[in-house]
Structures are given as structure tokens and as C-alpha cells.
Specification:
The protein is mostly beta strands. The chain has a domain of 143 residues: Thrombin, subunit H. It is 4% helix and 43% strand. It has a 4-stranded antiparallel sheet, with no helix packed on it. The N and C termini lie far apart (51 Å).
Length: 389
């Protein structure tokens, strides 16, 4: 087992057993250690594609948590650790409203154009009116919330860190259902979120498990194994599904720390393929490929149908990469210094690079009608697209 590297990172990620963690983000802890691997120098780009920042805005710092924006209709919604919540025009970045949640927030934001949902480490959930930012209702879940709430089909879904999923009515805040399961002795402290797709909720858990729940009532449809715990110690056996499952068409894919990347039939959970790989950010999909940033800082493209390796870009080693986002002919990924790297979708070659404000980009870039949007740990929002000739 990769205990030399894995032990340090797992200790940074664990909710129990390591103690004294300075922040919720493993990368912050790891970067503070002088013995940690130095980030690779940025490779020179021969003939880079020109990029432009279409607009930028400031929402507020993440302070060690992972915040990412949400897109609904023609608007972007974003939040910050200090409780700031904003709605901006997706095309221009103009602020439509700015509100305060009245509490310190601990993760990203969920929205559907009618309501906006945020949550705290105390398990408080606040839902705002998307039109004006006015509070609609509050609720409480059983523990801290690190992942973005999901708003779908009249429900607000909240994942708490103690392996529970709560569903509330989006308009009245009434609890509709709860799903819960036991956790392993050590679990990854990261924003492991939810994916809603075709009437199902997909979520990964400790022990390498992936479940599909009925959105309407929380009933278990199926359970599958992404990866099995291995090793002699509890630390070596940490094999949590991380990030949000990626669902598209009849496939759902997920990735586990110290484990594997695997894809399943979304109808019944039957396995399609699996590849040994460790990541702390999960897996993303496009029509042809699956993409993973591994925990050593390499970006992988895998054939979606078979899991066969198509390319591996390893010149961003130890740069603590975000989940990749496929954008047409390119794949975008953020890093610990606030750079957005554009890689060729077919080869993984470097195509372009854009600096932001120097704050780490922890969450996946968000696709916009033109280009992409990233939120940095320093609180910056940057809409980036190819520069017009």
C-alpha cells in the first residue's frame, strides 16, 4: 500500500483519529508541511491559445473550505465562508443581489432559479429566494455540511458529514425523507456530494460504496462497490468515494481515494469497468471520455466505454489539481496557485493557461455558455473564454 504518501494525505483527510487538523481542506494541511512534495514548475507553452477573462468578481474567502458557484438559468450563484451569498449575471458578472446568510458557511451553494440553498458546519440549512435573496426557511441536519446542497424537482437535498442525506421540500422546508448508513472508523473529510439524474440520487460513501436512491422517497434502488478497503491498518483501509458521482445517459461513474475509478449501469448498478487509481476530487465525463486528476497531480483521460487509458498528463505533479472539466476540444483544470490549465482533449497536450488571483482552485470549473467559471479560495470569481481574434 502507498503508506508513505497515503498516510500523510489520509491523516489530513480523516474526520477522526488524526486530531488537530488546521483546516477542512487536505491540501492546506499538506502544503504547510515543509517535507511535502514541491509543486512542479509550470511548463512553458510553445504557441498557447489566447484566453481572456470575460469578467471577474469577489464573493469572499473560503478560509480552508471548498466553495464553488452554481449556474441556474441566466444567473450564477456563489457563497463565501463569512456568509455572503450573491447572484450575478452569467454573461457580465453584474451583481443582481448580495445577501448575508447570518452564519458562517462551510461549503458550496445549490440553486435552481427559484431557491438558493447554503449550509454550515453546525448543520444549519438556509434557503433563500433566488429572485431577491430574501430568506425563505431554515432547517437543521445532523452534522456539518461540506458538500453543496442540490436543488431538484421541488426538493433541497443536503448531505451531512455523518453519512446522512436529507430531503426537504424546496418551498416549505418540510422534511420529506432521510437516508443514512454507518461510516467506517476513519472517513475522508472532503465535500463528497450528490448527483441527481433521471429521478435518482447518486452518492458515494466510506468503504468504497456507491448508492442509487429514488429521488421521490429516498428508497434504495441499488448499491455497488467502487473499491474495497485494503491494507493492515485503518489508515491504509480508508477507501471513501470522493467528489460527486458523474452520471450521463445510462452510466454513472465514481472514484475512491486509495481505490479505483469505476463505472456502472445506472439502471441496476451492474459494473461496466474499473481502473486502479487514487483521487481526492472524483471523476467527470463527456460524451466519449472519463477524466480524473489523481492525488499525485496527473490528469488522466479514460475511454468511457471501457476504461482504457487514452492519455496521461503528468507535468502538473503535486499542484493539487481540481476535477477536470471537458469543454469541446479542451479539458480545463485548476490548481493550487489559481491557474486554469487547458489541455487538448485528444492528447492531453497543453493548449493554454490563465492566471487568476493566486488563490487555489479546489472545485471543478463550471461550464458557461461561453467558456468557464472558477471560484478561488481567495474569493475571486473568474469567467474565462478563448480570446476573440
Amino acid at each position: 500500500m502507498r503508506i508513505g504518501r497515503g498516510a500523510a494525505l489520509a491523516c489530513a483527510l480523516a474526520l477522526a483519529g488524526c486530531g488537530g487538523l488546521p483546516s477542512a481542506n487536505p491540501a492546506d494541511w499538506f502544503r504547510a508541511r515543509p517535507s511535502g512534495p514541491a509543486p512542479a514548475e509550470l511548463p512553458a507553452l510553445g504557441n498557447p491559445q489566447p484566453l481572456a477573462v470575460l469578467w471577474s468578481a469577489s464573493v469572499g474567502a473560503a478560509e480552508g473550505y471548498v466553495f464553488s458557484p452554481a449556474l441556474a438559468g441566466d444567473s450564477v450563484y456563489a457563497a463565501a465562508r463569512d456568509g455572503t451569498v450573491v447572484r450575478l449575471e452569467a454573461t457580465s458578472g453584474r451583481v443582481r443581489w448580495r445577501a448575508s446568510a447570518g452564519m458562517r458557511l462551510s461549503g458550496a451553494i445549490g440553486a435552481d432559479g427559484e431557491v438558493v440553498a447554503v449550509a454550515s458546519e453546525a448543520g444549519e440549512v438556509l434557503v433563500l429566494d433566488a429572485a431577491n435573496g430574501a430568506p425563505r426557511w431554515r432547517a437543521r441536519v445532523s452534522s456539518e455540511v461540506l458538500a453543496a446542497p442540490k436543488v431538484a424537482e421541488g426538493l433541497v437535498l443536503v448531505r451531512s458529514a455523518d453519512s446522512r442525506i436529507f430531503a426537504f421540500g424546496a418551498h416549505d422546508g418540510r422534511r420529506r425523507w432521510v437516508y443514512q448508513r454507518a461510516s467506517m472508523p476513519l472517513i475522508v473529510r472532503s465535500p463528497a456530494g450528490l448527483t441527481v439524474h433521471q429521478g435518482a440520487v447518486y452518492a458515494g460513501f466510506s468503504g468504497g460504496k456507491l448508492v442509487a436512491l429514488a429521488l421521490a422517497n429516498g428508497a434504495l434502488r441499488w448499491e455497488a462497490t467502487v473499491a474495497l478497503p485494503r491494507g493492515a491498518t485503518e489508515l491504509e483501509r480508508v477507501t471513501d468515494v470522493v467528489g460527486e458521482p458523474a452520471a450521463d445517459g445510462r452510466e454513472v461513474c465514481a472514484a475512491a481515494f486509495q481505490g479505483r475509478v469505476a463505472c456502472f449501469d445506472a439502471r441496476n448498478g451492474n459494473p461496466l469497468w474499473a481502473r486502479d487509481m487514487s483521487t481526492v476530487t472524483g471523476v467527470s465525463l463527456d460524451a466519449r471520455n472519463a477524466y480524473v486528476s489523481d492525488d499525485r497531480g496527473a490528469v488522466h483521460a479514460l475511454e468511457r466505454a471501457s476504461g482504457r487509458s487514452l492519455w496521461r498528463q503528468d507535468r502538473l505533479a503535486h499542484r493539487q489539481l481540481s476535477l477536470p472539466l471537458a469543454l469541446g476540444a479542451e479539458v480545463a483544470v485548476g490548481d493550487l496557485q489559481g491557474y486554469v490549465h487547458m489541455l487538448a482533449r485528444d492528447s492531453g497536450a497543453f493548449v493554454a493557461r490563465q492566471a487568476t488571483d493566486g488563490g487555489a482552485i479546489r472545485a471543478a470549473p463550471l461550464r458557461l455558455a461561453q467558456g468557464l467559471l472558477v471560484q478561488t479560495a481567495a474569493g475571486g470569481l473568474f469567467a474565462i473564454a478563448p480570446r476573440s481574434p
